[in-house]
């Protein structure tokens, strides 16, 4: 029955949104969100993470051992053009490398002709998470200054192509159900109330100034900068700040990575103040999944070094609660309350 409902939701999402064709964002256990693109002629399907925390498109041309990834073969494309320049990028989880190539790329009903992207043959830096993962590649939606090789970013290319009604894109992340990424507008189905806008403080990541972080009524971080990052599953803050928050919540660290708390504990709200407005995550929002009597918190410590850091990363845990409009044209972020269906807790 669930699969029938899911199919219906996907088609409703496809048929909505002011005649533009949204990209369906599949959700794997609230930990990976990814959608389909096509590369080459005829189009070769690739499932990519649409990542606002990086700015390049890469897809694999080889398959890791015992994995089921879709791979791109330039020999099968009539529109492929060789480039050959080396590509290498470092993610939080490790390095990825290959070469640049050019080909046609289709995203929803949008087409980029002769677009420079990377075809990758080394993904070992992403570890088991990639080998077992549901996504094949990554499509970065960040700004030019963080583009490896200074190639035109996907969003800059889309804006320049003249295909977007407005130079914006917007994310709705489903809660254990499909979501939607819309290029060129916002989808009123997926948010309630009005948007509150915050200007970007840096055109690198989608970075803004942050007024405060509070747990209950108490300030728990002096850091004044945040990025909204669709490619990070959790909320992430400086390790010392996160350790203090975890201690106040009575949470224990597992292998120094994730925090667990007793499911029967009553947790105070975690509030981020952006542009003078409070964005509050309550207990159901910050619990990622349940394992017996232990609940995993959607919170981790990451120290981003200067000059980009220190900063808080408002990842998918935040973006499930708030519908985010990424306004490329006016260099700002817009936040509204996401119109969520019933929340589903993974056990």
From TrEMBL:
Which Pfam families does the UniProt entry name for this protein? Answer: Asp
Q: Which GO terms describe its molecular function?
A: aspartic-type endopeptidase activity
Q: Which UniProt keywords apply?
A: Aspartyl protease, Disulfide bond, Glycoprotein, Hydrolase, Protease
Question: Which residue numbers delimit the Peptidase A1 domain?
Answer: 33-336
Q: Which InterPro entries match?
A: Aspartic_peptidase_A1, Aspartic_peptidase_AS, PEPTIDASE_A1, Peptidase_aspartic_dom_sf
Catalytic positions? 51, 229
Concerning PANTHER family, the annotation shows: BETA-SITE APP-CLEAVING ENZYME, ISOFORM A-RELATED (PTHR47966)
To which protein family does this belong? Belongs to the peptidase A1 family.
- The entry's protein name is Peptidase A1 domain-containing protein
């Amino acid at each position: 029955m669930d699969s029938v409902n899911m199919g219906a939701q996907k088609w409703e999402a496809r048929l909505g949104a002011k005649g533009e064709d949204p990209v369906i964002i599949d959700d794997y256990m609230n930990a990976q969100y990814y959608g389909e693109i096509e590369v080459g002629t005829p189009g070769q399907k690739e499932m990519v993470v649409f990542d606002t925390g990086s700015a390049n498109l890469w897809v694999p041309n080889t398959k890791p051992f015992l994995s089921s990834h879709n791979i791109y073969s330039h020999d099968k494309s009539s529109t492929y053009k060789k480039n050959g320049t080396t590509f290498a990028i470092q993610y939080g989880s490790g390095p990825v490398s290959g070469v640049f190539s050019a080909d046609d790329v289709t995203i929803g009903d949008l087409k980029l002709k002769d677009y420079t992207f990377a075809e990758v043959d080394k993904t070992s830096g992403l570890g088991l998470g990639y080998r077992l993962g549901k996504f094949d590649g990554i499509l970065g939606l960040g700004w030019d200054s963080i583009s490896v090789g200074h190639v035109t970013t996907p969003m800059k290319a889309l804006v320049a192509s003249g295909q977007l009604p407005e130079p914006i894109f917007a994310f709705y992340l489903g809660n254990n159900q499909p979501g939607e990424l819309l290029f060129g507008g916002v989808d009123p189905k997926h948010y309630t109330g009005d948007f509150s806008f915050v200007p970007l403080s840096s055109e690198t990541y989608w970075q803004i100034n942050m007024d405060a972080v509070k747990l209950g009524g108490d300030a728990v971080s002096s850091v004044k900068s945040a990025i909204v990052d669709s490619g990070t599953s959790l909320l992430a803050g400086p390790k010392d700040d996160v350790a203090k928050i975890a201690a106040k919540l009575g949470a224990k660290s597992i292998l120094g990575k994730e925090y667990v708390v007793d499911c029967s504990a009553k947790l105070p709200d975690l509030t981020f103040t952006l542009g003078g407005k409070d964005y509050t995550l309550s207990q159901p929002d910050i619990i990622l999944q349940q394992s017996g009597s232990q609940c995993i918190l959607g919170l981790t410590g990451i120290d981003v070094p200067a000059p980009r850091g220190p900063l808080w990363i408002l990842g998918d845990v935040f973006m499930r609660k708030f519908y985010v409009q990424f306004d490329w044209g006016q260099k700002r972020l817009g936040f509204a309350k996401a119109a969520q269906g019933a929340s589903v807790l993974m056990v």
